[in-house]
Amino acid sequence: MAGYLDDLMEDSKTENSEEKKETEKEIEKVIKKAKEVEEENIEIKEAGEIDIKGAKSQIVSYGIVKIFKVEGEPLLVYSVPVVKPAGPEKAILSTIKEAATRLITVSPEEIRDATQRRNFYFRRVKEIIEHSPELGVPKSKVDFYADMVVREMIGYGILDVLTQDDLLEEIMVIGPEKPVYIFHRQYGMMKTNIMFGNDTEIRNLVDRIARQINRRVDMQNPLLDARLPDGSRVNATVKPISLGGSTLTIRKFKEDPFSVVDLIESNTLTTEVAAFLWVAVDGMGAKPANILISGGTGSGKTTTLNVLAAFIPDRERIISIEDTAELNLPLEHWIRFETRPPGLEGTGEITMDVIIKNSLRMRPDRVIVGEVRHAEAFTLFTAMNTGHDGCMGTVHANSAAETLTRVMNPPMNVPPIMIGALNFIIVQSRIHDPRKGTIRRVTEIAEVTGVSEDKPHVQILYEWDPALDTLKATGIPSMYEQELVRYTGLPKEGIRAEIDKRRKFLEMLIKKDVRSMKDVVIELKKFRVGDK
Predict the structure, then answer these.
(1) pLDDT for position 153
(2) For the CA atoms of the chain, what is the radius of gyration?
(3) pLDDT of residue 498
(4) Burial class (CB in 10 A: 0-12, 13-18, 19+), 139
(5) pLDDT tens digits for range 244-253
(6) Residues 29-75 pLDDT 10s
(7) Which residues are within 8 A (CB) of 506 and not within 5 positions of it... i.e. 6 or more apart?
(8) Distance between CA 192 and CA 66 in Å, rounded?
(9) Which sign, positive or negative, has the C-alpha torsion 319, 286, 311, 442?
């Protein structure tokens, strides 16, 4: 049977271009060199041996990951085995990758599921190696080479091992010859033992990521902010704006998003507050509240928005608009929109404001805006003021008062008189606790009670007590509950009883360890059916 690389050589011979002839010569050179490779040349350095100096004590380990406390290091160190092929191995890998690129005609974008995509490419690359004895790859190393090539073709190269860890939220490359940093769901910011040797390595990875999403990064377009096919969010910068070399930040997409049970168990919310917000989101089928979630970068605004959106009854039509799609709702009647930046010629941009205006013509029951920043704020508040109840969105601000100040001033410019349509502002913060590390907490729930003399009035219903690490009710009665009395016909005691009923239901979910978003939504549906 002719080897795949022989087929590749034949393909090269059928084309007369000088480029193809040069490719053929290079392949012949590499194959000749590959035959001289010995198996033991592959070097795997133990975690902690690369750029980690000082006495270390292991905190925890799982899988191939070890987390250390290192003397003199302010951060914990996240350590994994780093595979560094020697020169001949690089040549073999380059040849296999060249063959795979030509012989695998299925585009990565055609296989949406990340696991299926990786498995498909792994099988095909392994097949190429096994059918190419001229490479001299020993059987014991076939899987190794296949995995390395797949990492380079559709993965993240040296960062691939980090992307496989579901406990990581973000991966941060800050430049060449500097450690890669990560944000761990349990241990917060950490330094890793992984490092790019030069800027070219980072640029190659950035360029490969950009090609996956049909974008380009160069001196004229030195910024990249986009969503990858697997749902992860990527931000990259290159020279001239990135003075210390290329940077790359990957915010990993969580396939099973956090549920309300997760937020309660992590102490971000209490069951009482979660039950209150549940009533606010679905409005007991009568008057859903308009809600903004505010907070700083990385405070968990989108996570909380996603959790609250899961309370929306499944009979409703939901339209979400985001700059970079991050919401992940297990609801059927959900239409997702994502803005489009201008193309290389500066044309073709589709802004959030344009999409919101269009969505209002689509008979939505709910409009959810991932992040309100510009003119779309006016359009969103117009929707709130014209009968579109249950609108939700996020804003970058650190308090309820700051949220309103930002919304009413440039570039949002929402007139004060329109603010009265907003019911609640949920403030979420990322806090460094000396004992617990980085924690995320809802620190304030404020209610907009009205507007007079162009000044909105708010009252704080719940606020975080740092000493007790819990949200505490201020005792101020909610005006929204009075609205529900008017729209549902129930007495105020009936509204409070409903909130308490839902609190007990959430406690039951915790007791039964119903945790995944999918399972929680199923239980919420059962609750609504039983409630009828």
Answers:
(1) 87
(2) 27
(3) 97
(4) exposed
(5) 999 999 998 8
(6) 545 544 444 343 444 443 334 557 778 899 999 999 999 999 988 99
(7) 260, 261, 264, 271, 274, 275, 278
(8) 10
(9) positive
The answer to whether 503 touches 272, Cβ cutoff 8 Å, is yes
* Residue written as token pair 């620190």: 443
pLDDT at position 256 is 83
Q: Per the omega criterion (within 30 degrees of 0), is the bond before 240 cis? A: yes
Instruction: Enter the DSSP assignment of 340.
Output: B
For residues 411 and 377, give the distance between their C-alpha atoms in angstroms, rounded to a whole number.
Answer: 9
Joined tokens for residue 447:
């209610």
Q: How far is CA 266 from each of CA 100, 262, 463, rounded to the nearest angstrom?
A: 45, 6, 17
Amino acid, res. 3:
G
Alpha-carbon gap, residue 179 to 183, rounded angstroms:
13
Read off the amino acid at residue 459.
Q
DSSP 435-478: TTEEEEEEEEEEEEEEEETTEEEEEEEEEEETTTTEEEE--PPP
Give me the domains of the chain, ranges plus CATH numbers: 4-251 (3.30.450.380), 260-531 (3.40.50.300)
pLDDT for the residue 316: 96
**C-beta separation of 345 from 361 below 8 A:** no
The single residue listed with the structure tokens 């496989």 is: 164
What is the reported pLDDT for 25?
54
pTM of the model: 0.79
What does the CA dihedral 147, 153, 157, 163 come to, rounded to 10 degrees?
Answer: -80
Task: Choose among 315, 306, 313: nearest CA to 336.
Answer: 306
In this structure, are residues 459 and 451 in contact, taking their beta carbons and an 8 Å threshold?
no
Token code pair at residue 57? 């004590």
Distance, CA of 491 to CA of 489 (rounded, Å): 7
* pLDDT less than 50: residues of the chain: 1-2, 12-13, 15-16, 19-20, 23, 27, 30, 33-49
pLDDT of 49 reads 40
